[in-house]
Specification:
heterotrimer, A mainly alpha (about 250), B alpha+beta (about 150), C mainly alpha (about 55), A: about 250 residues, mainly alpha, Four Helix Bundle (Hemerythrin (Met), subunit A), 8 helices, globular, B: about 150 residues, alpha+beta, OB fold (Dihydrolipoamide Acetyltransferase, E2P), five-stranded mixed barrel, elongated
Protein backbone atom coordinates (compact mmCIF):
# COMPACT_ATOMS: atom_id res chain seq x y z
CA UNK A 1 0.00 0.00 0.00
CA UNK A 2 1.46 3.26 -1.05
CA UNK A 3 0.92 6.18 1.29
CA UNK A 4 1.56 9.61 -0.02
CA UNK A 5 3.45 11.02 2.94
CA UNK A 6 3.92 14.39 1.31
CA UNK A 7 0.18 14.77 1.42
CA UNK A 8 0.45 15.03 5.21
CA UNK A 9 3.13 17.67 5.22
CA UNK A 10 0.50 20.33 4.53
CA UNK A 11 -1.19 21.67 7.66
CA UNK A 12 -4.67 21.09 6.20
CA UNK A 13 -4.35 17.34 5.69
CA UNK A 14 -2.23 16.87 8.79
CA UNK A 15 -4.98 18.48 10.84
CA UNK A 16 -7.32 15.66 9.84
CA UNK A 17 -4.74 12.92 10.31
CA UNK A 18 -3.78 14.20 13.78
CA UNK A 19 -7.43 14.22 14.81
CA UNK A 20 -7.66 10.53 13.98
CA UNK A 21 -4.41 9.68 15.78
CA UNK A 22 -5.07 11.43 19.10
CA UNK A 23 -7.59 8.92 20.58
CA UNK A 24 -5.20 6.02 19.88
CA UNK A 25 -2.39 7.69 21.81
CA UNK A 26 -4.71 8.71 24.63
CA UNK A 27 -5.87 5.12 25.10
CA UNK A 28 -2.28 3.83 24.94
CA UNK A 29 -1.18 6.44 27.49
CA UNK A 30 -3.93 5.44 29.94
CA UNK A 31 -3.15 1.72 29.58
CA UNK A 32 0.59 2.21 30.10
CA UNK A 33 0.00 4.62 32.98
CA UNK A 34 -2.25 2.20 34.86
CA UNK A 35 0.10 -0.74 34.19
CA UNK A 36 3.19 1.29 35.13
CA UNK A 37 1.70 2.56 38.39
CA UNK A 38 0.51 -0.93 39.27
CA UNK A 39 3.97 -2.42 38.69
CA UNK A 40 5.64 0.51 40.43
CA UNK A 41 3.60 0.38 43.60
CA UNK A 42 2.41 -3.22 43.90
CA UNK A 43 4.88 -5.45 42.07
CA UNK A 44 8.27 -3.74 42.42
CA UNK A 45 9.85 -4.49 45.79
CA UNK A 46 11.18 -1.95 48.27
CA UNK A 47 14.76 -0.72 47.77
CA UNK A 48 17.62 -1.91 49.99
CA UNK A 49 18.99 1.57 50.70
CA UNK A 50 16.20 4.05 49.99
CA UNK A 51 13.18 2.12 51.24
CA UNK A 52 9.88 3.29 49.72
CA UNK A 53 11.19 6.75 48.83
CA UNK A 54 12.78 5.32 45.70
CA UNK A 55 9.28 4.93 44.17
CA UNK A 56 9.60 8.53 43.00
CA UNK A 57 11.86 7.04 40.30
CA UNK A 58 8.80 5.87 38.34
CA UNK A 59 7.98 9.47 37.46
CA UNK A 60 11.31 11.21 37.99
CA UNK A 61 13.25 9.27 35.35
CA UNK A 62 10.49 9.32 32.67
CA UNK A 63 10.07 13.08 33.24
CA UNK A 64 13.81 13.72 33.02
CA UNK A 65 14.19 11.59 29.88
CA UNK A 66 11.21 13.24 28.19
CA UNK A 67 12.53 16.71 29.07
CA UNK A 68 15.75 16.01 27.17
CA UNK A 69 14.22 13.98 24.35
CA UNK A 70 11.47 16.51 23.63
CA UNK A 71 14.06 19.28 23.46
CA UNK A 72 16.00 17.41 20.77
CA UNK A 73 12.80 16.76 18.80
CA UNK A 74 11.78 20.41 19.19
CA UNK A 75 15.17 21.62 17.94
CA UNK A 76 15.01 19.14 15.06
CA UNK A 77 11.65 20.42 13.81
CA UNK A 78 12.67 24.02 14.40
CA UNK A 79 15.81 23.46 12.32
CA UNK A 80 13.83 21.76 9.52
CA UNK A 81 11.41 24.68 9.57
CA UNK A 82 14.26 27.16 9.40
CA UNK A 83 16.10 25.35 6.62
CA UNK A 84 13.21 24.35 4.34
CA UNK A 85 10.67 26.99 5.32
CA UNK A 86 8.04 24.34 6.05
CA UNK A 87 5.21 25.73 8.14
CA UNK A 88 4.13 22.50 9.80
CA UNK A 89 7.58 21.63 11.18
CA UNK A 90 7.85 25.02 12.89
CA UNK A 91 4.36 24.60 14.31
CA UNK A 92 5.48 21.28 15.75
CA UNK A 93 8.45 22.89 17.47
CA UNK A 94 6.12 25.49 18.99
CA UNK A 95 3.69 22.77 20.10
CA UNK A 96 6.40 20.67 21.77
CA UNK A 97 7.89 23.44 23.95
CA UNK A 98 5.20 23.69 26.68
CA UNK A 99 5.12 19.92 27.18
CA UNK A 100 8.92 19.81 27.30
CA UNK A 101 8.95 22.62 29.85
CA UNK A 102 6.36 20.79 31.93
CA UNK A 103 8.44 17.61 32.01
CA UNK A 104 11.55 19.61 32.90
CA UNK A 105 9.68 21.24 35.77
CA UNK A 106 8.44 17.82 36.93
CA UNK A 107 11.94 16.34 36.79
CA UNK A 108 13.17 19.21 38.99
CA UNK A 109 10.18 19.05 41.34
CA UNK A 110 10.24 15.29 41.87
CA UNK A 111 14.02 15.46 42.17
CA UNK A 112 13.73 18.03 44.97
CA UNK A 113 11.18 15.91 46.82
CA UNK A 114 13.47 12.92 46.41
CA UNK A 115 16.64 14.75 47.33
CA UNK A 116 15.34 16.13 50.62
CA UNK A 117 14.82 12.78 52.41
CA UNK A 118 17.67 10.89 50.69
CA UNK A 119 20.50 13.40 50.23
CA UNK A 120 19.43 15.80 52.95
CA UNK A 121 18.77 18.77 50.65
CA UNK A 122 16.09 20.00 48.25
CA UNK A 123 18.63 21.48 45.87
CA UNK A 124 22.36 21.68 45.22
CA UNK A 125 24.21 23.49 42.47
CA UNK A 126 25.85 20.40 41.06
CA UNK A 127 26.34 19.97 37.32
CA UNK A 128 23.36 17.64 36.79
CA UNK A 129 20.84 19.80 38.61
CA UNK A 130 22.18 23.07 37.24
CA UNK A 131 22.17 21.91 33.62
CA UNK A 132 18.60 20.59 33.97
CA UNK A 133 17.59 24.01 35.35
CA UNK A 134 19.25 25.64 32.32
CA UNK A 135 17.11 23.34 30.13
CA UNK A 136 14.02 24.71 31.85
CA UNK A 137 15.14 28.27 31.10
CA UNK A 138 15.83 27.33 27.47
CA UNK A 139 12.24 26.12 27.08
CA UNK A 140 10.92 29.25 28.81
CA UNK A 141 13.17 31.44 26.65
CA UNK A 142 11.96 29.72 23.48
CA UNK A 143 8.32 30.19 24.45
CA UNK A 144 8.59 33.79 25.60
CA UNK A 145 10.60 34.82 22.54
CA UNK A 146 7.96 33.29 20.27
CA UNK A 147 5.20 34.96 22.27
CA UNK A 148 6.95 38.33 21.99
CA UNK A 149 7.06 38.32 18.17
CA UNK A 150 3.75 38.96 16.46
CA UNK A 151 4.55 37.59 13.03
CA UNK A 152 4.45 33.77 13.40
CA UNK A 153 7.00 33.11 10.64
CA UNK A 154 9.51 35.49 12.23
CA UNK A 155 8.75 34.00 15.64
CA UNK A 156 9.49 30.55 14.20
CA UNK A 157 12.90 31.69 12.95
CA UNK A 158 13.93 33.46 16.13
CA UNK A 159 12.78 30.51 18.24
CA UNK A 160 14.65 28.07 16.00
CA UNK A 161 17.93 29.79 16.80
CA UNK A 162 17.49 29.41 20.58
CA UNK A 163 16.32 25.83 20.11
CA UNK A 164 19.31 24.86 17.96
CA UNK A 165 21.95 26.56 20.11
CA UNK A 166 20.42 25.09 23.26
CA UNK A 167 20.96 21.54 22.00
CA UNK A 168 24.53 21.84 23.36
CA UNK A 169 22.99 21.55 26.81
CA UNK A 170 21.55 18.07 26.20
CA UNK A 171 24.84 16.10 26.17
CA UNK A 172 25.97 18.28 29.10
CA UNK A 173 22.96 17.14 31.15
CA UNK A 174 23.41 13.53 30.12
CA UNK A 175 27.15 13.26 30.73
CA UNK A 176 27.36 15.70 33.66
CA UNK A 177 27.43 12.83 36.16
CA UNK A 178 30.49 11.40 34.38
CA UNK A 179 32.34 14.60 33.55
CA UNK A 180 32.13 16.27 36.94
CA UNK A 181 31.86 15.30 40.58
CA UNK A 182 28.14 15.55 41.23
CA UNK A 183 25.87 14.77 44.15
CA UNK A 184 23.51 13.13 41.68
CA UNK A 185 24.40 9.49 41.12
CA UNK A 186 25.34 8.01 37.76
CA UNK A 187 22.90 6.47 35.29
CA UNK A 188 21.12 3.29 36.41
CA UNK A 189 20.18 2.49 32.84
CA UNK A 190 22.54 3.08 29.93
CA UNK A 191 23.20 1.59 26.51
CA UNK A 192 26.57 0.01 27.21
CA UNK A 193 25.88 -1.51 30.62
CA UNK A 194 23.50 -3.95 32.22
CA UNK A 195 20.89 -1.97 34.15
CA UNK A 196 21.73 -1.50 37.84
CA UNK A 197 18.14 -2.19 38.86
CA UNK A 198 16.08 -5.20 39.86
CA UNK A 199 14.02 -6.33 36.84
CA UNK A 200 10.54 -5.50 38.18
CA UNK A 201 11.72 -2.02 39.15
CA UNK A 202 13.15 -1.55 35.66
CA UNK A 203 9.97 -2.86 34.01
CA UNK A 204 7.83 -0.44 36.04
CA UNK A 205 10.06 2.46 35.07
CA UNK A 206 10.13 1.57 31.36
CA UNK A 207 6.35 1.17 31.21
CA UNK A 208 6.04 4.63 32.76
CA UNK A 209 8.45 5.92 30.10
CA UNK A 210 6.13 4.48 27.43
CA UNK A 211 3.16 6.13 29.14
CA UNK A 212 4.87 9.53 29.07
CA UNK A 213 5.73 9.03 25.39
CA UNK A 214 2.13 8.29 24.51
CA UNK A 215 0.89 11.19 26.63
CA UNK A 216 3.35 13.59 25.02
CA UNK A 217 2.40 12.54 21.49
CA UNK A 218 -1.31 12.90 22.24
CA UNK A 219 -0.99 16.28 23.89
CA UNK A 220 1.42 17.67 21.28
CA UNK A 221 -0.87 16.57 18.44
CA UNK A 222 -3.77 18.23 20.23
CA UNK A 223 -1.79 21.43 20.58
CA UNK A 224 -0.50 21.36 17.02
CA UNK A 225 -4.10 21.17 15.78
CA UNK A 226 -4.97 24.29 17.76
CA UNK A 227 -1.89 26.08 16.41
CA UNK A 228 -2.80 25.09 12.84
CA UNK A 229 -6.29 26.55 13.30
CA UNK A 230 -4.93 29.71 14.90
CA UNK A 231 -2.45 30.36 12.15
CA UNK A 232 -4.48 29.28 9.17
CA UNK A 233 -7.78 30.70 10.36
CA UNK A 234 -8.23 32.81 7.27
CA UNK A 235 -7.25 30.19 4.73
CA UNK A 236 -9.78 28.55 2.45
CA UNK A 237 -9.75 25.13 4.07
CA UNK A 238 -10.56 26.44 7.54
CA UNK A 239 -13.39 28.52 6.13
CA UNK A 240 -14.62 25.33 4.49
CA UNK A 241 -14.61 23.59 7.88
CA UNK A 242 -16.57 26.43 9.39
CA UNK A 243 -19.19 26.28 6.66
CA UNK A 244 -19.70 22.57 7.23
CA UNK A 245 -20.12 23.20 10.92
CA UNK A 246 -22.69 25.86 10.25
CA UNK A 247 -25.03 23.44 8.49
CA UNK B 1 21.66 46.92 2.48
CA UNK B 2 18.80 44.91 1.05
CA UNK B 3 16.24 43.71 3.62
CA UNK B 4 17.16 40.10 2.82
CA UNK B 5 20.81 40.79 3.61
CA UNK B 6 19.87 42.67 6.74
CA UNK B 7 17.90 39.65 7.94
CA UNK B 8 20.86 37.38 7.25
CA UNK B 9 23.16 39.66 9.22
CA UNK B 10 20.73 39.71 12.15
CA UNK B 11 20.46 35.92 12.17
CA UNK B 12 24.21 35.46 11.84
CA UNK B 13 25.03 37.92 14.59
CA UNK B 14 22.46 36.49 17.00
CA UNK B 15 23.79 32.97 16.40
CA UNK B 16 27.30 34.24 17.09
CA UNK B 17 26.20 36.10 20.22
CA UNK B 18 24.43 33.02 21.56
CA UNK B 19 27.45 30.91 20.67
CA UNK B 20 29.78 33.21 22.59
CA UNK B 21 27.37 33.30 25.53
CA UNK B 22 27.25 29.52 25.71
CA UNK B 23 31.04 29.26 25.52
CA UNK B 24 31.27 31.67 28.48
CA UNK B 25 28.66 29.76 30.44
CA UNK B 26 30.47 26.48 29.74
CA UNK B 27 33.73 28.02 30.86
CA UNK B 28 32.18 29.16 34.13
CA UNK B 29 30.73 25.70 34.47
CA UNK B 30 34.10 24.05 34.05
CA UNK B 31 35.77 26.02 36.84
CA UNK B 32 32.86 26.20 39.30
CA UNK B 33 31.24 22.88 38.94
CA UNK B 34 33.73 20.81 40.82
CA UNK B 35 31.02 19.96 43.29
CA UNK B 36 33.36 18.30 45.77
CA UNK B 37 37.02 17.37 46.27
CA UNK B 38 38.26 13.93 47.23
CA UNK B 39 40.34 13.45 50.41
CA UNK B 40 43.36 12.80 48.16
CA UNK B 41 42.86 16.19 46.47
CA UNK B 42 42.52 17.84 49.89
CA UNK B 43 45.77 16.28 51.13
CA UNK B 44 47.47 17.36 47.89
CA UNK B 45 46.21 20.91 48.66
CA UNK B 46 44.16 21.09 45.45
CA UNK B 47 41.12 22.19 47.42
CA UNK B 48 40.65 25.87 48.32
CA UNK B 49 42.00 25.66 51.88
CA UNK B 50 40.87 28.62 54.00
CA UNK B 51 37.63 28.96 52.09
CA UNK B 52 34.51 26.84 52.47
CA UNK B 53 34.50 23.84 50.15
CA UNK B 54 33.07 20.31 49.89
CA UNK B 55 34.70 16.96 50.51
CA UNK B 56 33.20 13.82 49.00
CA UNK B 57 33.95 10.18 49.62
CA UNK B 58 32.83 7.27 51.76
CA UNK B 59 32.16 7.35 55.49
CA UNK B 60 35.09 5.31 56.87
CA UNK B 61 34.06 2.03 58.52
CA UNK B 62 33.99 2.25 62.31
CA UNK B 63 34.69 5.99 62.32
CA UNK B 64 31.24 7.33 63.35
CA UNK B 65 31.15 8.47 66.98
CA UNK B 66 28.23 10.45 68.39
CA UNK B 67 28.80 12.75 71.38
CA UNK B 68 26.46 11.98 74.25
CA UNK B 69 23.69 14.49 74.81
CA UNK B 70 24.28 16.49 71.63
CA UNK B 71 23.86 16.12 67.89
CA UNK B 72 27.59 16.45 67.30
CA UNK B 73 29.05 13.59 65.27
CA UNK B 74 32.65 12.68 64.56
CA UNK B 75 33.41 10.61 61.50
CA UNK B 76 35.98 10.31 58.74
CA UNK B 77 35.64 10.66 54.97
CA UNK B 78 37.86 8.35 52.94
CA UNK B 79 38.55 7.61 49.29
CA UNK B 80 40.54 4.54 50.44
CA UNK B 81 43.83 6.35 49.69
CA UNK B 82 43.45 9.26 52.14
CA UNK B 83 41.16 9.86 55.11
CA UNK B 84 40.01 13.21 56.56
CA UNK B 85 38.42 13.47 60.05
CA UNK B 86 35.16 15.44 60.15
CA UNK B 87 33.14 17.06 62.94
CA UNK B 88 29.52 17.99 62.34
CA UNK B 89 26.69 19.22 64.53
CA UNK B 90 23.19 18.79 63.17
CA UNK B 91 20.77 16.33 61.65
CA UNK B 92 22.25 13.73 59.34
CA UNK B 93 20.38 12.53 56.23
CA UNK B 94 18.65 9.13 56.39
CA UNK B 95 21.17 7.53 54.06
CA UNK B 96 24.20 8.54 56.15
CA UNK B 97 25.91 5.24 56.97
CA UNK B 98 29.39 3.83 57.39
CA UNK B 99 30.75 2.62 54.07
CA UNK B 100 28.27 4.79 52.11
CA UNK B 101 28.81 7.93 50.05
CA UNK B 102 28.84 11.34 51.70
CA UNK B 103 29.49 14.97 50.73
CA UNK B 104 30.31 17.47 53.50
CA UNK B 105 30.61 21.25 53.17
CA UNK B 106 32.77 23.27 55.54
CA UNK B 107 36.29 24.47 56.29
CA UNK B 108 39.39 22.62 57.28
CA UNK B 109 40.87 23.59 60.67
CA UNK B 110 44.55 24.12 61.40
CA UNK B 111 44.60 20.70 63.04
CA UNK B 112 43.46 19.14 59.77
CA UNK B 113 39.94 18.42 61.00
CA UNK B 114 37.14 19.25 58.59
CA UNK B 115 34.51 21.37 60.37
CA UNK B 116 31.34 20.61 58.41
CA UNK B 117 28.27 22.81 58.45
CA UNK B 118 26.33 20.64 56.01
CA UNK B 119 26.43 16.88 55.44
CA UNK B 120 24.69 15.32 52.44
CA UNK B 121 24.38 11.65 51.55
CA UNK B 122 25.45 10.53 48.08
CA UNK B 123 23.93 7.22 47.09
CA UNK B 124 24.83 4.99 44.16
CA UNK B 125 22.73 4.14 41.11
CA UNK B 126 21.87 0.60 42.24
CA UNK B 127 18.29 -0.31 43.03
CA UNK B 128 17.38 -3.75 44.35
CA UNK B 129 15.27 -5.45 47.00
CA UNK B 130 16.92 -5.85 50.45
CA UNK B 131 17.13 -9.65 50.01
CA UNK B 132 19.15 -9.26 46.83
CA UNK B 133 21.49 -6.77 48.55
CA UNK B 134 22.01 -9.25 51.40
CA UNK B 135 22.74 -12.08 48.99
CA UNK B 136 25.26 -9.90 47.15
CA UNK B 137 26.95 -8.97 50.40
CA UNK B 138 27.18 -12.62 51.44
CA UNK B 139 28.65 -13.57 48.07
CA UNK B 140 31.22 -10.77 48.36
CA UNK B 141 32.20 -11.92 51.85
CA UNK B 142 32.51 -15.54 50.71
CA UNK B 143 34.71 -14.45 47.83
CA UNK B 144 36.88 -12.40 50.16
CA UNK B 145 37.21 -15.37 52.52
CA UNK B 146 38.22 -17.69 49.70
CA UNK B 147 40.79 -15.16 48.49
CA UNK B 148 42.39 -15.00 51.94
CA UNK B 149 42.66 -18.79 52.07
CA UNK C 1 2.12 -7.73 47.67
CA UNK C 2 4.07 -4.89 49.24
CA UNK C 3 1.42 -3.49 51.57
CA UNK C 4 -0.60 -5.12 54.30
CA UNK C 5 -2.97 -2.16 54.73
CA UNK C 6 -4.02 1.07 53.08
CA UNK C 7 -2.44 3.16 55.82
CA UNK C 8 0.85 1.41 55.16
CA UNK C 9 0.43 2.20 51.47
CA UNK C 10 -0.23 5.87 52.14
CA UNK C 11 2.62 6.27 54.61
CA UNK C 12 5.20 4.88 52.13
CA UNK C 13 7.51 3.84 54.92
CA UNK C 14 7.47 7.38 56.36
CA UNK C 15 8.19 9.03 53.00
CA UNK C 16 4.52 9.50 52.11
CA UNK C 17 4.74 13.28 51.90
CA UNK C 18 7.61 13.14 49.42
CA UNK C 19 6.28 10.29 47.28
CA UNK C 20 2.68 11.55 47.11
CA UNK C 21 3.86 15.15 46.82
CA UNK C 22 5.66 14.12 43.63
CA UNK C 23 2.79 12.14 42.14
CA UNK C 24 0.19 14.79 43.05
CA UNK C 25 2.06 17.54 41.20
CA UNK C 26 2.54 15.31 38.14
CA UNK C 27 -1.21 14.69 38.12
CA UNK C 28 -2.00 18.40 38.53
CA UNK C 29 0.36 19.34 35.68
CA UNK C 30 -1.24 16.83 33.33
CA UNK C 31 -4.75 18.05 34.16
CA UNK C 32 -3.67 21.68 33.78
CA UNK C 33 -1.98 21.07 30.43
CA UNK C 34 -4.99 19.28 28.96
CA UNK C 35 -7.39 21.97 30.26
CA UNK C 36 -5.24 24.78 28.88
CA UNK C 37 -5.22 23.26 25.39
CA UNK C 38 -8.98 22.63 25.43
CA UNK C 39 -9.51 26.19 26.55
CA UNK C 40 -7.37 27.53 23.75
CA UNK C 41 -9.41 25.53 21.27
CA UNK C 42 -12.70 26.67 22.74
CA UNK C 43 -11.64 30.31 22.45
CA UNK C 44 -10.90 29.72 18.77
CA UNK C 45 -14.21 28.04 18.19
CA UNK C 46 -16.01 31.00 19.70
CA UNK C 47 -13.97 33.43 17.65
CA UNK C 48 -14.55 31.80 14.29
CA UNK C 49 -17.89 30.16 14.84
CA UNK C 50 -18.20 26.46 15.40
CA UNK C 51 -15.43 24.51 13.72
CA UNK C 52 -16.80 21.25 12.52
CA UNK C 53 -14.39 18.42 13.06
CA UNK C 54 -14.05 16.46 9.83
CA UNK C 55 -13.29 13.27 11.70
CA UNK C 56 -16.52 13.04 13.57
Amino acid sequence: MAINWFKYSSPASFYTLAGKMIPIFVIAAVIFLVAGLYIGFFVAPTDFQQGEAYRIIFIHVPAAWMSMFLYVVMAFWAAIGLAFNTRLSSMFATAIAPTGAMFTFLALWTGALWGKPMWGTWWVWDARLTSELILFFLYIGFMSLQAAIDDPRRADKAGAIIAIVGVVNIPIIYFSVQWWNTLHQGASVSINQAPAMASTMLTGMLVMVLASWMYSIAVILKRVRVIILERESHSAWVTELQKKGAV
Amino acid sequence: MKPRHKKLVIIASSVTALGIASVLVLNAFQSNLVFFFSPTQVVAKEAPIGKSFRIGGLVADGSVKREDGSTTVHFAITDTAETIPVVYTGILPDLFKEGKGVVAQGKISNQGVFLADEVLAKHDENYMPPEAAEALEKAAKAQKASLIQ
Amino acid sequence: MNWSSWSEFFSMGGYGLYVWGSYAVVFLCIVAEVLLISNRRRTLEKQYGHIHDLNK
